[in-house]
């Protein structure tokens, strides 16, 4: 498997302390800053794409990985959650904001011998 | 030339106080580029320098964008930059206007704007299936 792209994004849940929601928003931010046009241009299949999603939040155990995987429109998603992201505590007002980071790797089985530059 | 588009990256940038269209364009381009790390050149066994990178910027005053400065942001590949009318300018509320109280500052003759630039980056390789191989159509 060769990695085609690493997409990065952040998402938050400002007042709900919902780590899954923050993670899903981070995934949406990551995937909507780019488009893998090569699948169309080169006639490749999305089905064969493996998508490795790594989420960073302060409380990894509170993320529903299935819901995060459902955010990915194409390919086979594998979601891993680690301790990361950032929690911002407002002690004056008694609120907690949850920030999630998402890193998404899109991988495909490409044989470099199948392709060449035109010149 | 068999230009194959392999990726598109999107970004947004702003100039909040100085109405600097070039700065907003540069930030939009950086937002587009640094949200992703393209590793396709490696995957296909090409060099990153083989990438053909076409940048399109949208701002409300295209003539105010220094194209050379925007192009200088591109880290590698053969780059080109095009600026079109787009993006968005939003007038600041009068009370936040930084012109002199009587409004006579000639540099601030027109209303201050918050400037928003859009950037789209299209990445190509001049590529084709290797002779007698490949799944390309």
Describe this structure in words.
The complex is a heterodimer of chains A (119) and B (137). With 119 residues, chain A is α+β, with helices and mostly antiparallel strands. Chain A has a single domain (2-109), classed as 60s Ribosomal Protein L30, Chain: A. In chain A, 18% of the residues lie in helices and 44% in strands. In chain A, strands 1, 3, 4, 5 and 6 form a five-stranded mixed β-sheet that branches. In chain A, helix 3 links the parallel strand 3 and strand 4. The mean pLDDT of chain A is 96. With 137 residues, chain B is α+β, with helices and mostly antiparallel strands. Chain B has a single domain (3-126), classed as Tubulin/FtsZ, C-terminal domain (60s Ribosomal Protein L30, Chain: A), CATH 3.30.1330. Chain B contains three helices and six strands. In chain B, helix 3 (67-71) links the parallel strand 3 and strand 4. The longest helix of chain B has 13 residues, at 21-33. Chain B is elongated and about 70 Å long. Chain B starts with a strand and ends in an 8-residue tail after the last strand. Strand 2 of chain A pairs antiparallel with strand 1 of chain B, so a sheet runs across the interface.
